[in-house]
Amino acid sequence: MGEKIETAAEAAEANALPRVHEVHNDPAAKNAKDQPVPKGVSGKPVAQKSPAQWAYERTVLYLKKFEEGLDENHEIAMGFAGTDAGVLKIEGMGYFDPDVVTFYGADPAGGKMQLVQHVSQLSVVFRAVPKAVESETPNRIGFKLLADLEQGEA
Asked: By the 8 A CB rule, do 32 and 143 touch?
């Protein structure tokens, strides 16, 4: 009933390219499907990426989207479930092939922190926290990470 007929090449390409779908209760919220996936993410088939690279790229997209909703008085941080580690203000992110993702940052007191996580255990909670110094502009690490993806460096 009304199925679209695809060539073998179109079917293979559709299976290889990343797709995003989200629905939000707030009509003002942009759904992820309304935003293009950067070439640095969509330019390489998923099958050619390590689990670490693929998890890193998608986490960067969610991180940047979360930051877009923050005001000038807040920055992004990660909360930890099931531990007393508190929160990590995200200052950097990376991955180590084939299966490790890492977050770099600081705790609320300014102490250096790093989370090293296997992709099978990856669970990230983004939190808005007040920026450290009132006179400084907030750090927007998501925009820096996305710029790196758009250059195809990941």
From this structure: no
Q: Is the peptide bond before 98 cis (omega within 30 degrees of 0)?
A: yes
Q: Please give the helix or strand (H or E) that residue 16 lies within, else none.
A: helix 8-16
110's torsion region: left (phi>0), alpha (psi -120 to 50) or beta?
Answer: left
Q: Which helix (H) or strand (E) holds 51?
A: helix 51-68
Q: Residue 128: phi, psi to the nearest 5?
A: -90, 125
d(CA 149, CA 51): 16
Amino acid identity for residue 58 in this structure: R
pLDDT score of 128: 92
Rounded-to-integer distance, Cα 58 and Cα 64, Å: 10
Q: Which residues of the chain have pLDDT under 70?
A: 1-21, 27-36, 82, 134-135, 152-154
Q: For the chain, percent helix, then strand, then coil, each to nearest 5?
A: 30, 25, 45
Q: Indicate the residue type of 132.
A: A
Q: How far apart are CA 21 and CA 147, in angstroms?
A: 22
Tokens of 125: 């909670």
pTM score, whole prediction: 0.76
- Euclidean distance between CA atoms 20 and 1, whole angstroms: 25
